[in-house]
């Protein structure tokens, strides 16, 4: 079962109090560092001479101030590719000495590794330090600027550039990085001539002061005139205003409106035409001072005051003193904590303002006291309202008032850059070795820009409690006694608002290896027997071996043997047996090693030069005494038994007599543990003589030459060397020693020895031989991909003496080590090539007879990189469209284009420029879509996506086609009608309607515009006839479509007609049909539902199934006329009126009447005889339409029914019975 281990976070109140203490002690007066970062290329010689001279004045001035601003000094020389050696000292004399020891080297290289050198200076300096950079080149390593900027924001140090050159391009990133460093640190850039460095150093004397506060910091690249109101409070002393830039100008006005002038209120500290101006003033009156500056420049205003502030940031309302942040986090609400020192109550802060580097306010927020000290304290904590920090760089300004109510403004000494938070970084060992039955601690740590929670787990089981940390933290889980069940994966999870990060570790469990008790060291005297033992703990079987000075000891050989308990015994030890011994215990589960030292205690011994020695008055003597033994003995000297003073001996124990006198003669003894006497006696004078003959010498060029000339005499003779040819002996370190022989040294040399008792000479002939160097021919260009190893060959074919070889890159020496290494064959090797390695390398071999150089150009195939550009491109239909794809890389990448997944090739529609630009001469809506530009070279490829949107001129179509003429459209009276206007275009066009040509009122209920843009007429009237125009407009243009509206009226009959017409057969008849409508309707006649036939007969043929009315209808079609009606003409006649608006019909029912008529002679007078009392039937049959009625008469009188007479029903007959 595990036990969680982690410290609880301190409570908020404790953290704030701690922060107060830390902030107050962070940059106390006198804790700053003065750092010089110096470019030691050959072109900087004049600068170095002036800096050496000015440094002593700067140091003297800073040390003479009552408040010492500087605690230590740093010197960082740099020369591509090296930085250093670095000097950091509290001794100003040593700082000056190191400065004087600098020597310039090489040519005027441009650029230089200046960013790395500045970073080193800031790293070793205290917070709030002064860093001055002297160079005449832009930065080569500008890509490393982010790390330096973060460090400057943390250290709050100021960097000032004194530039006597910039490689001629101030738009280059290598120069722009200087501007950013200066802006971030509230420093400046001074551009000077080589002779003007001294003037800047005089200003540096004044600028380095303790308790410096910042009041204003602005940069103006666009020029113009700027006026700033700067409140000066009573605590401010010695205000300094500095400008740098072309033709700087400054105007200062006090609160009363008085303009200060040079010599009258303004003290000029520095004035370099077209480069820099620095003035100082005493703020004799509190209040708002005006400064007006002009030109393209940077402006800094500082002062001396004990009232200042420091700011820190937190994403939490509670501030942790240990884990507070100097940089705000983007995307989260941030609280700003202000630690204000020197401001005593009732003085207070009121607000915090965020400024950009041009001096403009980005935002402001109120502050409130968070924790105030006692009334006597001069430090206060204030916190601002939470804010969302803006992107980019910004400065903080705190505003308030002092105890007397005077306005108080202070500006941060550095700019702040917001940090984009990333996922927490989790760190845990990937493999953990644990041993059975032993405790094991599993630890995990994490870091994050924002608060996070940390948790250890195994599988789904959490190990301990999840813990909250601010910036960094670690947690642990202790397993008291490991077992096999503990083996497996353990996971560490860090969770923040950005997301979750995980890391896993595998715990392996095995039996423990042997455990050794470390033995103690052994000291023995020569001849003793020594036993060395290693005690192994545990019951696991093991094998024990011994080694001595890295070699396996062979027990049983010679004086060494292995005892039964595996101890090593050495009999009769000797001084050579001393050294480091190791015992190695090995088992199936592992290996353990322990070591001990065997020291052989050797009796002291003393060795001195032979005696006696002779000397003369004033001669310098050295009596050598070498002592040995173990431990090393301490030597002492005695003269006639009396001890000599310590300062008469040197570090090696020899006795040094600088100027001998007769009293120095006598017996001298050198003492270690035993003594050995040395006698020193005066000797009689003797003339010089050579104890051995001088021989001739033959050497190779470059060898060290020493011409022996041993001479004796008393006093000791003076030896001089001359050349037989009379030439001077130049370049020799001593009278007979030269470090590197050259052909010019070949000559006959004369050694002359002389003292007061004689002079002698001897000749030495020196012969110098050699051969000039030669390099094997190699490829002039070497190409390599990034990250791959590469070797640049340099094979020496000839040269005697063997030539010295060195490599140069772009004219500057390449020092082996770091990125570059020298192979045995002389080739220069780079293990992992990068773009910074590209350039011209020169192998130079040199000996005394000459030199040979060979250039090789190293080309690094940099992967393509495409410059960012607009993601969305909008163009108008028909206009030319240019899609940029600016790609860089080595070799120059080729650029291809694709639309979607379809590649684009050159055509009249698409034009591909060599620089990668895609041109569409006349764009159309079909060109809209997603385009991909891909840059490819041998090192890789890069792609960029962009969206093309074509703004098309509106198009209005009718039934899928376009028309230019007004479109006729018909409407029916009272029936709703829609005039279509569906317009296409991008962006979607706006549609408006007009009517001949006034805008159409849309407020009425009769007209409305539908979402599609069409016009809806609810109830068209005839008065609505006319020309209607729909106009569609967008950014690309406009289009219109006109409609000619015609409202149609359905047919109707003007007057009612009779529905039934009766006529006698043979009589004429006329059927009329008057109807109206718009357009004029056409009339058709139908009889009994049948259409008219095609016969041209003017008479109807009623027997025909299709009755023909064509000859009966009037030319207008509205009348049917029949001259003699026949019975077949009887029927229903339908008049139909029809137009495009509709139809209407009306029926006429025609009845034809036929007069009565007797059938078959009925009705003709006939005489009938009948018997009396007989019956008689008289028949009377008649036809007619309608059916006729029959009436009988008898003698002229109507016959009425009676008992004798009756009318038979259904018959036209009667019967009379008498």
From TrEMBL:
MF-aspect GO terms: axon guidance receptor activity
InterPro entries for the chain: Cell_Adh-Cytoskel_Orgn (IPR050958), GBD_Hemicentin/VWA7 (IPR056475), HMCN1-like_VWA (IPR056861), Ig-like_dom (IPR007110), Ig-like_dom_sf (IPR036179), Ig-like_fold (IPR013783), Ig_I-set (IPR013098), Ig_sub (IPR003599)
All copies of domain Ig-like, residue ranges: 424-510, 513-595, 604-683, 685-767, 773-859, 864-949, 954-1042, 1051-1153, 1156-1218
Pfam families, sorted: GBD_Hemicentin, I-set, Ig_3, VWA_4
Chief localization: secreted
Signal sequence extent: 1-25
Top-level taxon: Eukaryota
Any single GO CC term annotated in Swiss-Prot or TrEMBL for this entry: extracellular region
Protein name, per record: Ig-like domain-containing protein
Alphabetical UniProt keywords: Disulfide bond, Glycoprotein, Immunoglobulin domain, Secreted, Signal
Compartments, record wording: Secreted
Entry keyword annotation includes Secreted: yes
Annotated organism of origin: Zonotrichia albicollis (White-throated sparrow)
One annotated GO biological process: homophilic cell adhesion via plasma membrane adhesion molecules
């Amino acid at each position: 079962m595990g036990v969680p281990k982690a410290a609880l976070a301190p409570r908020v109140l404790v953290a704030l109090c701690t922060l107060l203490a830390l902030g107050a002690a962070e940059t106390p007066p006198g804790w700053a560092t003065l750092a010089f970062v110096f470019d030691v290329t050959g072109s900087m010689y004049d600068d170095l001479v002036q800096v050496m001279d000015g440094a002593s004045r700067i140091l003297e001035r800073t040390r003479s101030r009552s408040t010492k601003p500087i605690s230590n000094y740093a010197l960082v020389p740099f020369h591509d590719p090296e930085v250093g050696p670095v000097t950091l000292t509290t001794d100003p004399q040593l700082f000056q000495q190191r400065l004087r020891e600098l020597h310039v080297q090489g040519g005027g290289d441009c650029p230089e590794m200046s960013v790395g050198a500045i970073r080193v200076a800031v790293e070793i300096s205290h917070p709030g330090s002064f860093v001055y950079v002297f160079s005449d080149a832009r930065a080569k390593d500008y890509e490393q600027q982010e790390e330096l900027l973060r460090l400057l924001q943390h250290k709050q140090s100021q960097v000032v550039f004194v530039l006597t050159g910039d490689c001629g391009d101030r738009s280059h990133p290598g120069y722009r990085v200087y501007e950013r460093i200066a802006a971030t640190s509230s420093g400046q850039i001074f551009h000077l001539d080589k002779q003007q460095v001294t003037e800047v150093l005089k200003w540096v004397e004044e600028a380095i002061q303790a308790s410096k506060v910042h009041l204003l910091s602005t940069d103006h690249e666009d020029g113009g005139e700027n006026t700033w109101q700067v409140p000066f409070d009573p605590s401010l002393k010695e205000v300094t205003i500095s400008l740098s830039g072309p033709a700087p100008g400054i105007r200062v006005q006090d609160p009363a409106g008085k303009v200060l002038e040079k010599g009258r209120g303004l003290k000029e500290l520095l004035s370099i035409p077209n480069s820099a101006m620095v003035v100082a003033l005493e703020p004799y009156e509190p209040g708002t001072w005006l400064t007006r500056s002009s030109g393209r420049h940077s402006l800094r205003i500082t002062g001396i005051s004990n009232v200042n502030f420091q700011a820190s940031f937190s994403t939490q309302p509670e501030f942790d003193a240990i884990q507070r942040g100097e940089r705000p986090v983007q995307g989260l609400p941030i609280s700003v904590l202000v630690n204000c020192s020197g401001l005593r109550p009732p003085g207070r802060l009121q607000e915090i303002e965020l400024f950009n580097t041009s001096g403009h306010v980005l935002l402001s927020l109120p502050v409130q006291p968070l924790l105030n000290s006692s009334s006597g304290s001069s430090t206060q904590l204030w916190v601002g309202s939470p804010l969302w920090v803006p992107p980019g760089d910004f400065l903080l300004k705190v505003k308030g008032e002092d105890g007397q109510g005077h306005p108080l403004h202070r500006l941060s000494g550095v700019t702040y850059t917001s940090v984009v938070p990333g996922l927490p970084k989790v760190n845990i060992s990937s493999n953990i070795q644990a041993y059975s039955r032993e405790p094991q601690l599993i630890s995990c740590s994490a870091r994050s820009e924002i608060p996070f929670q940390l948790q250890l787990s195994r599988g789904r089981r959490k190990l301990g409690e999840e813990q909250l940390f601010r910036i960094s933290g670690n947690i642990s889980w202790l397993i008291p006694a490991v077992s096999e069940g503990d083996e497996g994966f353990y996971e560490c999870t860090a969770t923040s608002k950005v997301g979750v990060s995980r890391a896993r570790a595998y715990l392996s469990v095995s039996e423990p290896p042997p455990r050794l008790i470390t033995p103690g060291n052994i000291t023995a005297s020569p001849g003793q027997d020594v036993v060395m033992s290693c005690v192994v703990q545990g019951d696991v079987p093991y094998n024990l071996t011994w080694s001595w000075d890295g070699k396996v000891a062979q027990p049983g050989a010679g004086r060494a043997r292995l005892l039964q308990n595996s101890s090593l015994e050495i009999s009769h030890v000797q001084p050579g047996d001393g050294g480091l011994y190791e015992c190695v215990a090995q088992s199936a589960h592992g290996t353990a090693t322990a070591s001990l030292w065997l020291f052989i205690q050797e009796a002291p011994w003393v060795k001195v030069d032979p005696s006696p020695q002779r000397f003369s008055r004033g001669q310098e003597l050295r009596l050598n005494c070498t002592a040995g033994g173990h431990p090393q003995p301490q030597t002492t000297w005695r003269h006639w038994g009396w001890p000599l003073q310590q300062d008469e001996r040197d570090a090696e124990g020899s006795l040094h007599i600088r100027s001998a006198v007769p009293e120095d003669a006598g017996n001298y003894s050198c003492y270690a543990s035993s003594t050995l006497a040395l006698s020193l006696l005066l000797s009689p004078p003797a003339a010089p003589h050579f104890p051995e003959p001088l021989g001739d010498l033959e050497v190779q060029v470059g060898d060290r030459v020493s011409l022996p000339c041993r001479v004796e005499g008393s006093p000791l003779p003076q030896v001089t060397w001359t050349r037989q040819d009379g030439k001077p002996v130049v370049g020799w370190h001593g009278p007979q020693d030269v470090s590197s022989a050259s052909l010019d040294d070949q000559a006959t040399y004369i050694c002359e020895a002389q003292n007061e008792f004689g002079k002698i000479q001897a000749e030495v002939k020196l012969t110098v031989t050699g051969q000039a160097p030669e390099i094997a021919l190699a490829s002039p260009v070497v190409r390599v991909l990034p990250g791959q190893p590469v070797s640049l060959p340099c094979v020496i074919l000839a040269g005697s003496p063997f030539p010295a070889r060195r490599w140069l890159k772009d004219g500057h020496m390449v020092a082996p080590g770091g990125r570059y290494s020298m192979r045995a064959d002389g080739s220069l090797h780079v293990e992992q090539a990068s773009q910074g390695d590209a350039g011209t390398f020169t192998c130079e071999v040199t000996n005394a007879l000459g030199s040979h150089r060979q250039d090789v150009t190293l080309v690094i195939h940099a992967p393509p990189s495409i410059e960012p550009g607009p993601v969305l491109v909008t163009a108008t239909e028909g206009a030319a469209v240019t899609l940029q794809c600016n790609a860089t890389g080595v070799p120059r990448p080729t650029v291809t284009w694709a639309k979607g997944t379809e590649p684009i090739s050159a055509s009249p529609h698409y034009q591909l420029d060599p620089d990668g630009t895609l041109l569409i001469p006349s764009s159309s809506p079909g060109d809209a879509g997603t385009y991909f530009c891909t840059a490819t070279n041998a090192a890789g490829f890069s792609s960029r996506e962009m969206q093309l949107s074509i703004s098309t001129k509106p198009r209005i179509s009718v039934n899928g086609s376009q028309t230019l003429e007004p479109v006729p459209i018909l409407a029916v009276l009272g029936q709703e009608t829609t005039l279509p206007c569906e317009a296409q275009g991008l962006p979607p066009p706006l549609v408006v309607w007009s009517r001949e040509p006034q805008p159409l009122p849309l407020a009425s209920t009769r007209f409305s515009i539908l979402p599609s843009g069409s016009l809806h007429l609810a109830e068209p009237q005839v008065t609505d006839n006319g020309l209607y125009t729909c106009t569609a407009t967008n950014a690309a243009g406009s289009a219109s479509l006109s409609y000619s509206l015609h409202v149609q009226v359905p047919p109707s009959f003007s007057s009612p007609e009779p529905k039934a017409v009766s006529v006698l057969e043979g009589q004429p008849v006329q059927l009329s049909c008057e109807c109206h409508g718009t357009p004029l309707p056409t009339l058709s006649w139908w009889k009994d539902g049948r259409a008219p036939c095609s016969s041209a007969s003017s008479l109807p043929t009623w027997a025909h199934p299709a009755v023909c009315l064509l000859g009966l209808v009037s030319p207008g079609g509205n009348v049917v006329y029949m001259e003699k009606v026949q019975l077949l003409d009887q029927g229903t006649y339908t008049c139909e009126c029809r137009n495009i608006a509709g139809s209407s019909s009306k029926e006429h029912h025609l009845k034809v009447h036929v007069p009565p008529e007797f059938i078959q002679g009925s009705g003709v007078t006939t005489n009938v005889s009948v018997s009396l009392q007989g019956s008689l039937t008289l028949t009377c049959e008649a036809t007619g339409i309608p059916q006729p009625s029959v009436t009988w008469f008898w003698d002229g009188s109507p016959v009425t029914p009676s008992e004798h007479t009756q009318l038979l029903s259904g018959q036209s007959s009667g019967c009379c019975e008498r």
